[in-house]
Design brief:
Elements: E1 3-7, H1 13-22, H2 28-44, E2 51-57, E3 60-69, E4 76-84, H3 93-107, E5 112-118, H4 124-132, E6 136-146, E7 149-157
Parallel strand pairs: 4-5
Antiparallel strand pairs: 1-2, 2-3, 3-4, 5-7, 6-7
The structure holds coenzyme A (COA).
Length: 159
């Protein structure tokens, strides 16, 4: 019982797809890309191009995080996806997933983690979540995703 974080596996897929669809943060194209990356992470395992970890809350796959080393860099990693099913939000799951992913990146000698998110007002909660976790807002690119939808780049130096 309780929270368990494990490398994502194909048996998590249906529940994680539901988390992506029901959190209302992602459009259909974004969900399709997220699932493609998740498939690749599951096929390659944690030491493939992408590493994905699922949070199991009382045996239910409630959310996941996906990271990967940034190509052509020595020790920089990207956080590609983080989602928690709305039913399980505000219970500390994303915080636990992020700590787990940061420890994993450190264990692979990664020294910084970068993420790109939206500057839209409805993403304010997500940006606050990352700020609370020690991520600094380093850039904002106007209309990056589409007109009126800026791209925000945040990063954290991992000691
Ligand atoms: C962002 C997200 C991953 C947070 O997941 P979570 O499991 O609810 O996060 P936690 O419970 O670990 O939250 C830790 C803290 O972050 C902050 N936080 C989290 N969600 C927040 C929100 N919607 N508004 C304001 N602050 C928020 C709070 O300080 C929270 O602590 P508190 O509940 O004691 O106030 C989740 O809301 C989500 O999946 N959103 C949709 C997808 C998304 O936006 N992903 C990230 C951008 S790509």
């Amino acid at each position: 019982m309780g929270l368990l974080i494990l490398p994502s596996s194909s048996s998590d897929l249906a529940a994680l797809k539901e988390a992506l669809e029901s959190c209302r943060a992602f459009n259909l194209e974004e969900i399709a890309v997220a699932l493609e990356i998740l498939d690749s992470a599951i096929a390659g395992g944690p030491d493939g191009d992408y590493a994905s970890f699922t949070a199991h809350q009382n045996h239910h796959p409630a959310g996941y995080i996906c990271v990967g080393q940034t190509p052509l860099t020595e020790s920089t990693w990207h956080l590609y996806w983080l989602v928690v099913h709305p039913h399980f939000q505000r219970q500390g799951l994303a915080t636990a997933l992020l700590s787990h992913a940061e420890a994993f990146v450190r264990s692979r000698l990664g020294r910084r983690l970068i993420l790109e998110t939206s500057g839209r007002p409805d993403y304010q909660g997500s940006r606050r979540f990352y700020q609370n976790a020690g991520y600094t807002h380093v850039a904002q690119i106007p209309d990056y995703y589409r007109d009126g939808d800026d791209g925000v780049i945040m990063y954290k130096q991992l000691s």
